[in-house]
Amino acid sequence: MHELAKYWWLVVLRGVLAVLFALVAFIWPAITLAILVVFLGAYLLVDGIFALIHGFTVMKTDRSWWGFVLVGLAGIAAGLIALFMPGITALFLVTLVALWSVVTGILEIVIAIRLRKEITGEWMLIVAGIFSVIFGILLFMQPIAGVVVISWWLGIYALFLGIFLISVGFRLKKVSKEFKHI
């Protein structure tokens, strides 16, 4: 747990990136599908890299490291597909985002359950995971939704995810300070 708390800033950084992505989705909802794919690919790739770094950083000291690594690998894979196969991604954008959201949400819930004895407020990561799963299910149910609606859904999802990740990150920071005093 000490290593996880030591790198609290990675969780906060993921949250900030999610909020920034949400702002882009809200400000420019009518952007073309190609631009949305690039923004999404970049976000998924960067988020995946930070989650992967976090997982490997705490590997030796935290049993939940594998969850971060899986979240990271899922994000990196989805991001690379979006960036290097934009035509295919444009056709399957809804399915790609839905699948990524459901998998990430389930893993976030598992990580939160594992952290429940270590930190208070782990429910926020559970809520973030639930939002991810619900968001993915909604996308599976509405595959022909317009780009503007997808942009807004992504924005709402990213905003709440970002807020919850930032909150969890600062709670980990508090735990990190407590470890320094021990």
TrEMBL record:
GO terms for cellular component: plasma membrane. Keywords: Membrane, Transmembrane, Transmembrane helix. The chain crosses the membrane at residues 7-28, 34-53, 65-84, 90-111, 123-144, 150-172. Pfam families: DUF308. PANTHER family: PROTEIN HDED (PTHR34989). This is HdeD family acid-resistance protein.
